Amino acid sequence: MSSAPGPSVPPLRVLELYSGIGGMHFALNSCGVPAEVVAAVDINTTANHIYAHNFPLTPLWGKSIEGIQLGDFNQLSIDVILMSPPCQPFTRLGLKRDVVDQRTKSFLYVLELLPRLSPPPRFILLENVKGFEESCARNALVEALDQCGYSYKEIMVSPTSVGIPNSRLRYFLIAKHSDEDFCANAHSKILECFPVHAEPGVCEQSTEAPHQPQGPFLYKLETAEEVQKKLQQNQDPSIRQIQDFLEPNVDLDQYLLPPKTLLRYANILDIVRPICRRSICFTKGYGRYVEGTGSVLHTSPKAQMEAVFRGLAELSEEQRLERLQTLSLRYFTPREVANLMGFPLTFEFPEDVPLKQRYKVLGNSLNVVVVSKLLQILLS
Ligand code: SAH
Predict the structure, then answer these.
(1) pLDDT per position as a tens digit, 4-44
(2) CA 335, CA 90: separation in Å to the nearest integer?
(3) What are the catalytic residues (predicted)?
């Protein structure tokens, strides 16, 4: 006869707001804490199609958050809220319209609901862009948390701090309801690394390189400082190489940069090689726009970057193109971008999602490994 099972802790009931393609859900699944997403909410039909493909059993509410009543949320009996509110109102290069931006409306509604949620969620994790930390929306969030009896930590980290060769500096806030044991907001500083469990003000060592000053251009419109910074990043053994994240057989016809792009934008491309230990943040415009939307890969082992770029401007268009093409520059595939964003191999796009849409939803998403580590700190 088998003995009766011991009392088991029921899985945490998680509400995933602004669920997109489910970056938070993947992070939750890998953080090692038993949990179930009881509802995911997003208005984007493409993102929802991808979410449903990957999590067919999760209730997905394809409607706007501000249209959902308090009672509907309360029926879920939520333990945890995970959310990535729209970041456009807070981005460095945007208009920074903050709380007056229409896209912040739903977030303010969430803050309004917070004191009325019953039972109050025990844990909250929020992700947003750099810039959010100095917004009125952040102040409203912190005020609501204080009023509802939460303690919280604010953290700014990039995937490089978990050994992934991709920059994606993001703001995170993790909060626990006061019934939980969590020594936080004793300090008002934003941590620039993962908090160590026992001591809230102490950080694990960060590998994010500090901002470098500008200087005269060398070649390819890069200053000596920028080149130096990249060299340093490429020599940091705590970060893995790009080649660990690449697909074995990539259809070059589909991913090589077209001649027009090479001729027009060669000087502003961020180019990395498989042995590099860095890449820039992939944004939603990757594959459509060039400047600052993500790195491209130099796949030809023989061609030397410096030799290709030196004196390039003096050549005819035809000669320039010929030289640039020796680098065999290609875009990272969506699968490779997903790998660099920490998505597990089980993550899949439904076949009918076009390439540009794949880049777009990935660009809106988050680094799964980073969030998973934060969830471990928050929930365990
Ligand atoms: N963390 C997600 C992405 C968040 S991006 C991921 O891993 O993919 C912000 C998301 O919020 C977008 O998918 C957008 O469609 C959604 N969104 C924006 N405003 C919304 C609203 N009012 N109600 C519901 N979803 C909204």
Answers:
(1) 565 688 999 999 999 999 999 999 999 999 999 999 999 99
(2) 28
(3) 87
